[in-house]
Amino acid sequence: MVFQFFTVTCHALVMCGRVRSTLGADQVAADVPWVNREQYTPRYNASPGASLAVLRVAGPGETSSSGRVVETMRFGLVPSYTDKAAKVDFYRMFNARSETIAEKGVFSRLLQRRRGVVLLNGFYEWAMEKAGASQVKQPYYLHLDGGGGESEGDVLRCAALYDRWKGGDGGVEYVVALMIFIGAFVVFVLVKGPGMDVHIPMVVPKAGGFRKGGGMRGRSASFNV
User: Fold this and answer.
1) CA distance linking residue 99 with residue 157, whole number of Å
2) Which residue spans within the chain are E strands per DSSP?
3) SS3 189
4) CA distance 131 to 118
């Protein structure tokens, strides 16, 4: 798995809190039903609260030859037990760290029954770089290699956990958090000098589970949806 990168203009300074989600229907749901497709809004710089396309297991009454469907969900977890009158903060839990996920009840309760795969073009990360006598955060856009230049490759599939929350108006929101792990971008080792340990999304290959690899430190793991 190869990541291509290039710099972009992005003013957010939240780690893993910005993604590109501009996929078309042929890339997202070519062979599976897409639930709430009309709620999906493509964004080049999607932040918590934005709509994302998420692959999940089909529920009772949902017809799918593969047993899976794509559903539009909001980026940022709101636990199902959250009070209906609560002020929703999508920034509070948009990431679930793999090293503590089994220890935190808000996430561990979802591991067995509400796993999903967020479908993206890519995501943004930031590196501290020198600018004269000071340091600034430089944004980078990472995506699968499209075979040369700055072209994007295949759809980026990121492991996630989702939940279902019912708000005060009676409407139901499906909400999702990206699963992340500590990794080191080799591209920074090769181009920028010292490597950087940062939290990055868990990438899931198209077939089977996923392996924490592709130029990133980490152990192997399985994640099936």
Assistant:
1) 20
2) 3-7, 19-21, 34-35, 43-46, 51-57, 68-75, 95-97, 115-120, 122-131, 134-144, 156-166, 172-184, 197-201
3) helix
4) 35
Lookup: tokens for 66: 């593969």
Q: What is the mean pLDDT of each run of 10 residues along the chain (225 residues)?
A: 34 58 90 93 94 92 89 92 87 85 88 90 81 82 66 79 82 82 40 48 63 31 52
d(CA 213, CA 225): 19
Pairing of strands 68-75, 43-46: unpaired
Domains present along the chain, CATH in parentheses: 15-123+150-181 (3.90.1680.10)
Quick check: pTM over 0.85? no
**What residues are paired with 20 via a beta bridge?**
122
Q: Residue written as tokens 């593969």?
A: 66
CA dihedral 200, 201, 204, 210 (to 10 degrees): 50
Neighbours of 190 (CB within 10 A): 10
CB count within 10 Å of CB 58 equals 17
Helix then strand then coil, % of the chain, to nearest 5: 10, 40, 50
126/42 Cα distance (integer angstroms)? 22
